[in-house]
Every structure is written in C-alpha cells, then in structure tokens.
Amino acid sequence: MKNILLIGLFMSFLFINCSPSAQEKSKKESASKDSLAYDANAKAESSQMGDSIAHDVSLSTATPKEKKFIKTADLKFKVKNVLQATEKIEDVTTKYGGYLTYSNLENKNENIRTTELTKDSLLISKQIDVVNEIKLRVPNEKLDSFVRELNPLVVFLDYRVIKLDDVTHQFLSTQKKNARFQKYENRQLNNIDKKSSKLNETTNAEDNLFDRQNQADDQQIKALELADNVKYCNLNIQIYQKPVIVREVIANFDFITEKKQGFFSRAGESLMQGWTILEELILFLLKTWSFLLISLVTIFGIIFIVRFFNKRRVE
Fold first, then answer.
1. Which of 52, 115, 245, 299 is most open to solvent, judged by the fewest CB atoms within 10 Å of its CB?
2. Opening angle at CA 132, ends 128 and 137, nearest 5
3. What Å distances lie between residue 92 and 11, 96, 306, CA to CA?
4. Where are the alpha helices (DSSP H) in the chain?
5. DSSP of 135-184
6. How far apart are CA 150 and CA 85, in angstroms?
7. Nearest-angstrom CA–CA distance, 168 and 128
8. What DSSP letter does each residue of 68-96 carry, written as one string?
9. Beta partners for residue 110, in sequence order
10. What is the mean pLDDT of residues 109-121?
11. pTM for the full model?
C-alpha cells in the first residue's frame, strides 16, 4: 500500500511539473487572443491594400457614332504562366476577329552565379525571367470585350494605357480629296479625247493627267490606311511571370584538365567532407532534441517500473 502511494505521488509530481500553471495558461490565452486580433487587423489591412491596387484591365471606349477614332492600348501585367497566357491571348484574338502582328517569347538569364561544390564539380545557379511582348490588332468595336477577357490572366497590373485619336475631320478631308481627284481625272480624260487631233496638246495633257493620277493614288492609299486604322485598333501587350530559379551541377573542366592531386590535398578534402557530414549529423540531433528527451524519459521510466516490480516480487 505504501509503495502504491509513493508511485501515485511520483506520477502526480510529474503531472504537476509537466502541466502548465494557471498563470502560464492565462498568458497563453492572452497571447492567443492578441495573435488572433493581430491576424484580423493584418487581414483587414491587406484587404484594404488589395482593394486599392488595380488588378482589372477592363475598359470602356464607347464613342459617339458620328465620330471616327484611332484606338491604341498598351498593357503590361504579371501572369502565372507566360506560355499559357500567350496561348490564351492568341485564342481570344482569333475569337474576336483580330490577328497577331508580333510575338517575342523570351527566356532572360539573370543573376548567374557559379559555386564550387567539389574540386571537379560546379553548381550553376541562375534566375530565368520569362517574358513576352505581343502586338496585335482587333476590330475597333471589339476592343472592350477583348480586354475584358484578359482579366482572369492578370496577377498584377503594371499599367494600362488607352489612347483615342479623333480623326473625324481628317477622315472627311481625305474623302473630299479623293472625290476632287476623281472629278479632275474625268475632266482631263474628256479634254484629251477632244484634242486627239493635236499631238503636242494631247501629250502635255496626258503627262499632266499622269502626275495627277499618281497624286490620286497616294491619296487613296492614305485614305485606305486611315480607314484601316479606324476599323482595327492596335494593342501592345507585355506579360511576365515569377522568376524561375534553375540550378544544375556541371563538371569543372579546369580542374579535370589539371594533373592529379597529391595525397595531402586529397586527404584535406576528405577531412573537410567528413567534417561537413558531422555538422549535418549534429544539427539533425539538435533538431530532434525533444524526441530524444521523451525517449530517454520513457526508457528510464520503464527501467524504474521493472525494477520496482522485481523488487516487490523478491520481498
């Protein structure tokens, strides 16, 4: 009976020492409440900051029907995957009746570092920035819908620049010039037919008509170009993603081409490698100290209980 009482007191002592006190509990509860309050405030601040940052590339370029505009858009934003985003942009371009004029998908190597692992091997670490510059054209009236479909791709918006040039008067001026050139050409043709009997006058009139026709052709080409710019808007899109870190081990050819090392050099290198292994082992043991402590307590506890019962049996 006395032995059972001693065991009960021993277990109670361990429980009391291992269990947290009321003051510690109070401190933990207070710290937990403070942590929850801090997390709530941090989330609220993060949400407010997120709301203040532009993530949406949507736009509205509605214009009066009687006006003629040349629309251009410049976009730059971060995506999760440049290759997949490029394919999506190309698909959306085709969907809205547009076409691609330029695409430059590129892997840029940045921050290249070389570290010597051993005498005969090197570790190459480099940061790869995947970027793409895309130029395309879509119908003027489809610009808003096209840009709106890019929203799911945007992780972070760097900028969105929209420009509308009013060319209503220029468009009207071009049409009138074309009409005047056409009338002048018709009159000259009639005059040449009437003066067919006079060779010199006919030749001069035809030369003059030829010059005017060249001017009319240039003016007509300008009119077509202006009409095309009004019908299709130009978009310049730059996309990028989170940098990718690439590491690879390569042979150290400078060392390989050298002659074989001596005994003492190789012995020193072996000692360094062994010391590195010992360091890693010590660090591993330090990380698992709690597990080792519990194991030791358990083992000593079992030994104590076994000895106790063995002693009791002997008695």
1. 52
2. 175
3. 72, 6, 77
4. 2-18, 22-52, 82-95, 143-148, 168-194, 199-231, 253-256, 263-287, 289-314
5. EEEEEGGGHHHHHHTTGGG-SEEEEEEEEEEE-HHHHHHHHHHHHHHHHH
6. 9
7. 47
8. -EEEEEEEEEE-S-HHHHHHHHHHHHHHT
9. 127
10. 80
11. 0.57
β 244-251/156-166 pair status = unpaired
Residue 204 tokens read as 């001069």
Please state the φ and ψ torsions of residue 306, each to the nearest 5 degrees: -65, -45
Asked if 89 and 237 touch (Cβ cutoff 8 Å), the reply is yes
pLDDT of res. 242:
94
In the block, which residue shows the tokens 């009338």? 183
Write out the two tokens for 165: 């040039």
pLDDT in tens, 268-278: 777 877 888 88
Residue located via tokens 């840029």: 108
Q: Provide the pLDDT confidence category of residue 73 given band limits of 50, 70 and 90.
A: very high
Q: Which residue has the tokens 């006058």?
A: 201
With left for phi above 0 and alpha for psi between -120 and 50, is residue 170 left, alpha or beta?
alpha
Residue at 173: amino acid letter: S
> What's the start-to-end Cα distance of the chain, in Å?
14
CA-to-CA dists, residue 217 to 23, 39, 107, 173, 174, angstroms: 95, 71, 45, 15, 12
123-132, 146-155, 220-229: which has the minimum mean pLDDT? 220-229
Say whether 262 sits in a helix, a strand or coil.
coil
Q: Which helix (H) or strand (E) holds 241?
A: none
Helix 263-287 / helix 289-314 crossing angle, nearest 10 deg: 70
